[in-house]
Amino acid sequence: MSDPSLAIETRALTKKFGKQTVVNELYLSVPRGSVFGFLGPNGSGKTTTIRMLLGLASATGGEVNLLGEPMPRQLSGVLPRVGALIEGPGFYPFLSGAANLHRLDTADRYASGATRRRRVAEALDRVGLTNAAGKKVHAYSLGMKQRLGIANALLMPRELIVLDEPTNGLDPQGTREVRHLVRSLTEEGTTVFVSSHLLAEIEQMCTHAAVMRAGNLVAQGSLDELRHAGQTRVRVVTPDVESAERVFRALGLSPGHPEPTAHPGQLLDAEDDYALEAPLGDTLAPDAIVADLVAAGVRVRGFAVERATLEDLFVALTGEGFDVAQ
Amino acid sequence: MALMWSELSVLFRRRRTIVMLAALALIPVLVAVAVRISSAGSSGRGPAFINQIAGNGLFVSLVALTICIPLFLPLTVGVVAGDTIAGEASLGTLRYLLVSPAGRIRMLVVKYIAAIVFTAAATVVIVVAGIVVGAILFPVGPVTLLSGGTISIGESVVRALLIASYVTVSLLGLSAIGVFISTLTDVPVGAMAATVVISIVAQVADSLPQLDWLHPWLFSHYWLNFADLLRQPIEWSSFGSNALLQLGYVVVFGALAYGRFSSKDVLS
Ligand SMILES: Nc1ncnc2c1ncn2[C@@H]1O[C@H](COP(=O)(O)OP(=O)(O)O)[C@@H](O)[C@H]1O
Ligand SMILES: [Mg+2]
């Protein structure tokens, strides 16, 4: 049974190339209407997953439901409702940008020839390529090709748009434009599934995200849920390290190794300050910790409750910030 | 249907396609000019066909086709057929066509038809260029047939086009082989080269008497047998057996291409 509130749903989706398992038992749930970030370092299996979602590659195991229909069985009925940019743009270099879109549009049986010219012009306009429409694609920059690829995904009204690393090759201005575009698409009710190896990008435009690591899905949910998955930590700066540690333990916290630190208001003749950190559970109120520290005579010179950023989470989950895994 | 038109327009707008057709058109021109120059100081050497040219310009087409059949036509057909799927894969357009979705079978059929249209265009270009250049450089008149009778100029142009269609049919098998090979790789040059090499191997095998049991099964076996179309009345039997043989190749390699392409992972 497929869940009608999901635009994409996979169950135990697996792809092996020979002995290498490139995608391992993926359970993806992409809610309709979301901007879903598919995050992972290069080589973590994002593109391979997208190829399976769209019926380009067959799965070694597992199931895919796209817009409520099983893939690849219902491919010819589902794909007209899906626009896609996969692993960068692919075009005929000897044709103009507009001619390329015309060509790809003819492949869609549901795309009317009568409206083709208008739809191509609108799609080009939407990505800001109207002025380059008549130019041959071999004269396009990588960024222009990338935009043309996005325009191709927008030729028809779509329920789902899949964008594989859409900001590759774009300058910061182009990246911002893509963000705007994605936002305007969601306002029209389109679900957007966007892959990236850059966390910042996902953080800025997505409502939901999933994190891949070496073919495994290591986290998935709304951005808020993911932020909550990151641990909060409590941090105290004090010269009285031993007493502070005792208070922490008494409260059921497990402090890490104290680190020597300096703080801006430090007196010249003061004793050395140390920072003591410990993961904070849901049950303990931070003010209770301060009260106990003070009651134990600990000179609290700094106190903070820090929530792990998505960056920390991403680093913790994938083992590194970005670039190649494996 | 829109996809078919788009396919043809992409194919015939490509500079490579235009260059190949122009090169083929050049061959009857070269033949005619060479005969013209040498017949000025006529030596009377050379095959019978070629000597007919000086007497009747309509023979230029025939000689040019005969020259093109063993190598130049298989070469250009191999380029187009070998490029069909592998070329789209290497450009990265194949994945976009397929998610449009073009449909894999539809894609194959459209590609194969486009290859056939190119073959027909190539042979017609040779024939028409031959007729035109022949008419310019030599006298043109009623043609004396192999069987003895003569036919009018109009009738002989029809016969020339009939021969062009014979040659087109002759190359259906090779096109099907090319399209199949094209589904095996993402490297178009490889598929093109393999197709051309196969056409040469088939012709070599056809000329080895030790392999005479194999000859009737080779797709190139009837390639040069179009002379029967120059008899009065027309002798259709070689046309028929050629068409049947080519049909066999189309069925076999069409099925192989379908089997391969319908289940292929498109990772380009
Ligand atoms: N055609 C292929 N044959 C074998 N391995 C492949 C093929 N394509 C991709 N891979 C491997 O699959 C893994 C995931 O690749 P990919 O899905 O492209 O990652 P991403 O898109 O996340 O960068 C990589 O380790 C890559 O080497
Ligand atoms: Mg990728």
Notes on the protein architecture:
Chain A: This is ABC transporter ATP-binding protein. Chain A: It holds the Pfam family ABC_tran. Chain A: One of its GO terms (molecular function) is ATP binding. Chain A: InterPro entries: AAA+_ATPase, ABC_transporter-like_ATP-bd, ABC_transporter-like_CS, P-loop_NTPase. Chain A: Residues 8-239 form the ABC transporter domain. The complex is a heterodimer of chains A (326) and B (268). With 326 residues, chain A is α/β, with parallel strands linked by helices. Chain A folds into two domains: 6-228, P-loop containing nucleotide triphosphate hydrolases (Rossmann fold, 3-Layer(aba) Sandwich); 231-307, 2-Layer Sandwich (Alpha-Beta Plaits). Chain A is 32% helix and 27% strand. Chain A has helices at 46-53, 75-78, 97-106, 116-126, 142-153, 172-187, 199-205, 223-229, 241-250, 286-295, 310-318, and strands at 6-17, 20-26, 29-31, 35-39, 61-66, 69-71, 82-85, 160-164, 191-196, 208-213, 216-222, 232-238, 259-261, 273-280, 302-307. In chain A, the strands form three sheets. Chain A has a six-stranded mixed beta sheet, with helices on both faces. In chain A, strands 1, 2, 3, 5 and 6 form a five-stranded antiparallel beta sheet that branches. In chain A, β10 (208-213) and β11 form a beta hairpin. The longest helix of chain A has 16 residues, at 172-187. Chain A is elongated and about 80 Å long. With 268 residues, chain B is mostly helical. Chain B has one domain (2-262). Helices cover 72% and strands 1% of the residues of chain B. Chain B contains eleven helices and two strands, in the order αααααααββαααα. Chain B has helices spanning 2-13, 15-40, 48-55, 59-68, 72-91, 93-99, 104-137, 153-170, 172-182, 188-206, 237-263; strands spanning 143-144, 150-151. Chain B has a two-stranded antiparallel sheet with strand order 1-2. In chain B, a hairpin with a 5-residue loop joins β1 and β2 (150-151). Chain B is globular, with a radius of gyration of 20 Å. The mean pLDDT of chain B is 90. The chains are: A alpha/beta (326), B mainly alpha (268). Residues 17, 22, 40, 42-48, 326 of chain A line the site of adenosine-5'-diphosphate.
